[in-house]
Amino acid sequence: MSFTQEYQLIDNPSIVKKPPQLKKQKIIKYSLLVLTIVSLGIASFSILKKENEILVEEKIIIKDNEGEKILIKAKPRLDKYGVDLNVNVLDGIYTMGFNNDVEAKVEDWKLYTPPCPYLQPVKHADNDINPVCEKSSLQIANFEKNNGKDLPYVMPLNTISNQLEKWKEWEKKNETILYGNQSVKELVENKYHPFDYGYTGENTENITDKKYYNNVINSRMDEVPDPRRRRLFSFILFNAEYDLLDLYLSEYYDIIDYFVIYESNTTFSGNPKPLYFTRTLLETDRYDKFKDKLIPLPVKIIVDEDNGRGKGFPKEHLARRTVIEKGLRSVHARHGDLFMHGDLDEMPKAHVLSRLKKCGGWEHLQAGIGGGPKSFKNGNVDSYFINPNMNVTVNGKGEYNVDYSRNYSISFLSWFHEYSFNIIQNSKVGTVAHPNLSIFDARRSLGQLNERKNYNKRDSVSSYSDPLLDPNFDIYQGYTYTDNTNDLKKGKGYIGEYLRFDTSKVPELKGKKKATIWNSGWHLSSFLPTIDQFYNKISSYSHFQSYGKKSEETIKKDIINRIKNHQYIYGSKKKYNSVNSTFPLSYENGYEYNFNYDYWNERITSKNNDIGFKKYINDMKREIPTQVWKHPICYSFMIDRDYGIDKKLWWQVIPKEDWKTVKFEELDSEIIDQLVSPNYPESLKKQMLKYLNI
């Protein structure tokens, strides 16, 4: 593949295109030419721009006490709706080279792992992607019984169109409801739970996607889009876990509208690092099948403080705050859009995400009574960001005391797996309430007060002005925090990391009356292919101090020992349990789901011993992502942890020159048997090879 990346010369406004990798011959010729020009004193531009900057064939390389770094800068890349996917790379950012070599390609990185030869978006079953909402349901964890280990609550879903009509009827009654005082059991009862989408327009189904979403991103923030066409965004943190990112993008491409992917040019432990994802996206074809939804967010970390737990966690907290704020800006979020934040290894189940995106009836669990922004054009509407007479106070952390929602977010109660899907923290109940999903509220973003409350009532005084006519008014100010130079929370605004921290302690969810979606995801903790990558993780993340100052060899031996003994990778060697994953019977059809409300409600309320239902529940608890079971060779280490430790991975068996062209279905049966785990059903393996050969 031929590729060129744009780099801008310092002190030179022109943009030039040059291949990012220099050939030795060109370097020699160029160097001789430069020496000749300099010696003659007729250089057309300065070779040394500053004392620590040198120009190498139109690339800017900077030297500092950490070594050489290269400037990565991209030109605008507009999608079909007008969103600039490169918006966060336009100004450029310096980064170290791969293997500390600014001339190296990403494929030269010593820990680089190739993509699965069959890497592409997963085609989920139509019933999973487009649920029949008026008959569907959502399962909510019931912590009142056996700490959530028993059957969940089930709540009915509906079409958003039906929910809009029901709101109109409820509003006529002039009643009041305070969701903040309700228990989870009350929140999920089989009845209409009033929620105001803030939308009063017509159904826009006859408008093409291109025209509709182009209008949305160019609309005023105080205008409410059609909630039936709301978008879903994912804001995630990335270090260098290519296999997990491949899996994440494949699994959710058909569901999520944009992925904003944060990475920094230093680790949370403070060491400089390359911009792995940004450069891979810009300089290779690895993510070409996904790049129309990918928005890189490379960031320079400026925080350097110790919060008592080390310097890593303040960096992590600010990273989460940054990816949410910058993510919302990057995607042109508008009222009613859904945004999800989590780590790359926190994966919700695709069928759950689809129901949340496409169906209504659950929104009050997070947003409470809801409501939309009022148009500043109409008068008698103001923003407390510019009108001090509204007397809106802030709490001790600087958050505005306005009752916009019932909770920061709704969470996914996920199964905590360590190293692979056959090792689990607790096989009876999910132990992680992440990632977290929230509904974007333009009232918060604009600083408008809400009309209806979830917890209490607030009176205010306002005078009219239209801040959207002021080009300097920040329409995302309500999702911004004014001081991100430290983790002390001395500023004002939205503290994005609280979206996550609000559900970090699962045992407290019951007391806080927080709804979390039952059996709804996986935490793929330390799902890394090789020991070298485990060591890279240890030395990069916020937990890095837990290994002390041990040598690399000692740490690697410790990791191998922990893996073989099913012990957690950090801290005390807590032992986890062994489990067997369930696989679908049909490779083509995948898992078969039934989320019909009546089906669930009848079996939960009757408390009968339906053997088929019990098996269905158990199978759902041990299901794994579609991309994994469809490609057991590429993700063998996720199915069987012996791979990458005692058994070879596919790219350790297949020669490097064949990585991109290999066809697994054409390999000898002996090699297939070597690469496919015995945990994988033989009947499914035969179907897979037959399917790949079509």
Alpha-carbon distance between the two ends: 26 Å
Name the poorly predicted regions.
1-52, 457-462
Assembly status: single chain
Number of helical runs?
21
Proportion of helical residues: 25-40%
Measured by DSSP, the beta-strand proportion falls in 5-15%
Shape: globular
Q: Which structural class do the helices and strands define?
A: alpha+beta
**Strand count, sense and closure of the main sheet?**
8 strands, mixed
E-strand count: 19
Gyration radius over CA: 27 Å
Mean pLDDT: 89
The spatial strand order of the largest sheet comes to 12-11-10-13-17-15-18-14
Could you explain how this protein is built, in words?
- The protein has 694 residues and is an alpha+beta fold.
- Among the domains are: 5-108, no CATH class; 632-694, no CATH class.
- 26% of the residues lie in helices and 14% in strands.
- It has 21 helices and 19 strands.
- Strand 5 and strand 6 (67-72) form a beta hairpin.
- Helix 13 packs across helix 14 (552-564).
Observed structural traits:
beta-1,4-mannosylglycoprotein 4-beta-N-acetylglucosaminyltransferase activity; transmembrane; membrane; about 15% strand; 21 helices; alpha+beta; disordered N terminus; about 700 residues; globular; 19 strands; Glyco_trans_17
